[in-house]
Amino acid sequence: MRRGWTRIRLISVVLLGVIAISWAGFSIVSHELGSGQKTIIYVPKTIDPTIEFWQVMRQGVASAAKEFDAEIEVMGTRAEVDVDEQIALLQEAIKKKPKAIILAATDYNRIVPVAKEIVAAGITLITVDSGLNGGISKSFIGTDNTDAGRRTAEILRMHVDSHAEIAVINFVKESATAMERESGALEVLHRYGNYTLLGPYYSNGSVQTAYDIAKSLLKTKPNLKAIIGLNEPTTYGIGKAIQDLKMQSQVVAVGIDSSMGEIRMLEDGVLLATVIQKPFNMGYSAVKTAVEAIDGKRVSPQIDTGSKVITKENMYSSENQKLLFPFVE
Question: Is the pTM of this model over 0.85?
Answer without folding.
Answer: yes
